[in-house]
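TICKET #2291
ISSUE: user wants both folds in one file
ATTACHMENT 1:
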Amino acid sequence: MKLSAKVNFIILPVMLVIFSLAGILSYNSQKTQLISSLSEKIEYELKHISDSLKDSLYELDSVANMFLGGQSVNKYLNNLRFDSHKNYSNKELVKSINQLELRGGEIVIFGILNSDKEEVFLYDAEDPFATIEITEAITEHFAYINENIKPQGVSELQPSRYQLLMTEKRGNEILWIRTFSPDQAISTTSFSKGHSIYTAIIKLRLPRATNYMHELKSSLGENVLINISPIGHSQTMESVTTLNFMNDKDINYGLYLANQLWKIEVSVPYTYLDKLYQPYRFLFLSIVIAVTGITFILLKSLITSRIINPVVNLTKQVEDTVPGDKLRIARLQSNDEVSLLTNKYIDLIMKLDNIAKYDHLTGLANRIQFQLELSKLVSNSLNQQTRFAMFYIDLNNFKSVNERFGHFIGDQVLKVFSTRLAESLHETNLTHGDESQFDIARLSGDEFGLVIHNVRDMNNVVQAAKNIISLFDEGFRIDNHLFDIGISIGIAMYPDDAEDADHVIKKADIAMYSAKSCSHSAYQFYTSKLSYEIERYETVTMSLKDALVNNEFYLVYMPIYDCQNGSLRGCEVLLRSTNETLAAYGPEQFIPIAEKSGLIKDMDYWVLESAFQKLSEWIKKFSFSGVLAINFSSWQLKNPEFVEKVSGLIDTYQVPPQLIELEITETCFVPGEHKNGDILSALHGLGVNLSLDDFGTGFTAFSQLIDYPIDILKIDRMFINEINKGKTEDRPLVDIIVDVAKLYHLEVVAEGVETEEQLNYVRALGCQLVQGYFLSKPLPEAEFVLLLEKSNPQVSEIVLDKEGNGDLSSPRCQVL
């Protein structure tokens, strides 16, 4: 069969199928639009009806609250309590009710119940002999009120409850329940047992659902259906509204809107939809037939003239071609459409191949091509028993270039760096003749890969790294502009560090992240220790997250004693974890990782709140008047929310701020930092004490102590340990710290006292406070509570005041 005949058998069925599908899709699209438009109309009507009901509810709530707070109700209840003018008050109250006017409905019942659910007043517009019907909503409301009013004190309650009712006789009604007291303003929602408490019951008759039909029929047709049904009752008018399709899709199409109080359904029969679809069926069928016929004629003509004839000629040329004539096969020389298409196709394949392998900005190999070449290099190096070096390069602070100067300038920096990188490698003599002994690739935004082949001398690798870093001496300059960026290089060796391409890249990447922590620009060779550090960091970070979610932290308490008389002066709060991983590493390792990962913020908050809660309990139970020392991270000195958090906890747990001592480690403290002083001053302004922990191990000058609101110095245990080692050169350091503390009127705490000799020495120096294993190890809560009871035998004799607080003036007892 000739090509022209095949075209007929191929094109015509395909066109019929395609255009038929297009017609069906267009028809279905039109149906979808019609359905969407119909859904929008129904949705609008549903929201309109729901908003009308809400307006009635809001109006009833406003008018009823105003009426309950008015003279008529208060006068009636006051006369009722004093049993005077009851008949007159009853008439006056009925008269006031009759004067109430609401746009959204008509009040049919107004009743008042006392706190024992007894009827004290009832107005029924239809039945003067009726009594208040105690519904489930009223019963639950009274149960809620009685359950939540405290025997003593004031209770904050939700005094209102709302419900939509459906009755065959009277249609839809709103049941409004409101608990109030004539002894206070109606807007007050706080009640106590001392108040006279009443509950108002109001039923508001709403317009029947048929009243909405006029608007629905004008928008959705004569056969539209509406149904409004109650769901339940709620203490709030603001409820979550859901909008969904109705379940009976086989009969009607519609949507329903539901919230906690009511469900509104609006639907139309499918016959209504069929009328909407009918005009479009004939239209799309006619279009499909016409377009298919016209397109086939035009397309057949074009194919014959533009494709079939050139293909016939091309076939003859191919038949005449001598086998092996690569030029004729590779590229056609004629100018006909088929030849141009073939040649363009060849060009496109070559271009796509180039795009797939190389970065469009720098012209370097991309990550995919780099990994392929690296895999080949691994195979060659394995066969030839050679080594190569993998450099993972990252530009430090490059993000700031894009943010400050824009991505165009950032792209220029990357292009210039790519050129200079290659030039620096040529200067390192990594070439052999015209062939380079290295490969460069751009792996991602500001990350580059470099492979140095056939490494025989490691000095060449080191020199190459130094030459690259030298490009960033004092920044990176382009023309007359200096960019404040640096470079980090991680280096891994094959086969020393890895046995395949993926792992050698990963090891170089690990080394690069280690180099980032060294300085502005640095290089780092991979070591197994780096992998351990990365794995340790990731493991601990994940465990910290789990511990925060699963509440796997707890506190222990290191007692602090008066150095002179031995009395218990308080304790230092220490963080521990029940998480197996964190417990294995210990706080010394997981807390620094928490600071690096940013999780320390939530951990500090957990420690603070837990410690404040315990302090509040101890004050009430044991008249605890000691100091609770709580460590916080230097990270919080950059957290503007920290002071507000501490202040909020003081208010929440009602603890005296002078019993709180917040500790900051000196090694994490940056003297002269303006923000440090601001945060510390704000904390000190709350009334808490501030201590400088591990004093003597950091860089704080003695003269700078006067610039910061520090109350206490804690001498680091490393100086205390030197006291009984027979060395006298370190002892003057402890003496000096104590003398300087006295000069600045600071208390001194000696940490880590583990021998009697150390205790006697710091006591003789005049240290006020002491802690350490010689006196006590960190204690669990139960053991520390026993220590509190032992140190204060009068705890059991404390007489509680009316508010349940102990006498805070009880003396402390000596324990040494």
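ATTACHMENT 2:
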Amino acid sequence: MTNTPTSNAFLIFLSCVCHLVFGQICYSTPEEMERGAFVGNIAEDLRLNIWELSTRRFRLVSDDIRQYIEVNMENGKLFTNKKIDREEICRQNPTCSFTFQIALKDPTEMHPVEVEIIDVNDNSPSFEKAEYSLRISELIATGARFPLESAHDPDVGTNTISTYHISANGHFAVKVQSMRDGSKSAELLLEKPLDRERQSTFHLTLTAIDGGVPHRSGTAQIIINVVDANDNAPTFDQEIYRAKVPENAAKGTLVIKLKAADLDEGTNAELTYSFTNHVTKRNRALFTLHPRTGEIRVQGTLDFEESPVCDLDIQAVDNAPPGLSGRCKVVVDIIDINDNAPELDVTLVSSAVQEDTPPGSVIALMSVTDLDSSKYGKVQCQIQGNIPFKLEHPVVNSYKLITGDVLDRETVSLYNITISAWDGGSPPLTTSKVVTVSVTDINDNAPRFTQSSYNVYLMENNIPGISIFAVTALDIDLGRNGEVFYSILGGQSQEQSASVYVTINSKTGNIYPLRSFDYEQMKHFKIQIQAQDGGSPPLSSTASVNVIILDQNDNPPVITSPLTWNDSATMEISSQSVYPGYLVTKVLATDADSGQNARLSYQFVEATGRNLFTVGLLSGEIRATRHLNDKDRITEKLVICVKDNGQPSLSSTATIVVSILSNITEQSLDGTNKPLQPEYFSYLNRYLIIIFGSTSFLFLITIILLVTLKLKQGSRINGNYNSNARCHDRRNSTDVFNRGYATNEPINYTVPCQTEGYRYTVCLSPESSKSDFLFLKPCHPTLPFNNLGSQETGTRK
């Protein structure tokens, strides 16, 4: 191809054409341009800065666009990636273009782009054969036409064949006709009668010329033989016949029956029907023409979408040499039926969306086409199932798949979206396509404990560092968002933070004690556990753990009464006062444990007397079993064991030495003149006498001082000090001893006071002559102070 400067300027101008039609960017570029030829400045047309091409991830979205068009990311210009052959892409379609999408992110934008390929005159016309022969009778009248083989030019528009020329001669000219499809056909026109005797053969050159700039041409040789024969040509009753046949017509279906007439007779009137050279190979494959009957029948598979109209040029030739012919045209209209299902072309913008993607976000772009006519080609689309996606229909035959509701990965993590399309036929034809969209996780779920509160039972004296419990929290998020870490928030136990008692494994949730617990010191404590995920920002929840310490039998009983010294106690009883069931003493013991571990039982381990004393199993009361006599020992040694009910059982023992006195009165009176024998007196009693005597003395002095201060205070207030307040009644102690032991009554010392006084009774029990002491006890605690004076001369208790 040779390009002039004018044509080059014209092509460059076409390549720069850019306009916006209904939101679509259109460019035009000539074919056969060298690689790298400028197509358009997409960045300028989209009003984008050059740096936005990379930051917004500019890309071309199409299946095969990259083999023709590329974009320069440095300046935003579109350029050809290779030479574009329009005839290879679109063949002889009158218009030729291809489309693609421009995809941008943040925000997501899609811009349709159409590039129209402009045809250039790069192909010369050509004939199927280099030489053709014609036989023409000399009787043919002037003005007769003879169809010639048409040339073929793959270019379109003005670049295709525009005219035919024939070499100079005295008889023939070329008549150019325009066909229904816009192509040109040539006919040989007889302008001057033939005379075979003068010239029987003509060698003509037929030239086909296209309309390109510059023109291109092709030639073929026409050899015309002039014969002397039949002088009447067959004729049809119509020049153009029309017929209709559905595209699904079966093979052998009759389309039309033609009939031509010839005025000649005999052999010259016998006609043969055939297709002229103007009938294409494709149409010859679709239809058959019976040479004798003129019937046209369906032979191949008709397709309305490929060619809705078929033009058939028919000739009828008589059998007389040289054979005259008549011509007609049959136009066969193919009736469309709904035989093509819609086609869906899906361009996926994003195959993965976050679950917090707002409704209305674009997921995919779809274009829908139907090869059938507009009667059946009206296509509708719909999403199957109740899913949070929907279709938008912005322009004809174009849809957007967008999110229609809030997504939740924990409910559905993968969607297989089935998109159905159906046409307007009856019944309609349908097609479907599945778009797979995965939902990616965000940290929208906090860890959840299996329980809001846990009770943990821990035996005291536990071993530190051994797991006592494990909490579990579940997070239904994925990856880092679903990883759970445990920690102790706090909690109070006996005014200390619970974190000093236990620790927790941050990954497993196992709780470990940091120390050994003592039930007697701590019964329970409470801690707060936090479960936090690894998301950003992290989410958390809490649960409380109540640690209840269980008692273990780790404390033996402790005997609290009677008081012992080196696990031994001494007491005295009078042989005269002992009778069966007589309460000698009651052993009291305590156990720091609880429950069954603190349930105590009492029993003798050793007793010197034979069946003289018994002890209550549960009460600890030591009682005499019989009266005492002179044969009994004066000292009985009882070893008592106090045992708890734990497993294993713990016990304590104590020795009680019981001294049996035969005449307690004499010993009490003589006790001041005779030294006590060792078996009746112990160092413990001596210490106790000193302690309790000193305490009683100090207590008495304190009472006297308080009474004196109270009287002085009253005299200051009233101005009258009563100096006669004194104690005036005292009983001889000999009377006490004379009747105290005989009646077992307490010996009373009453000290009445006239005003706001206090009265105390000193009691001496005959059983405590050596082991018990004098105690001051309040007398008549319920009497009012103003009645004390009237009680002085009354009965003293």
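RESOLUTION: both attachments delivered.
EXTRA DETAIL ON ATTACHMENT 2: The helical segments are 5-15, 42-45, 52-55, 86-90, 281-286, 664-669, 683-718, 733-743.
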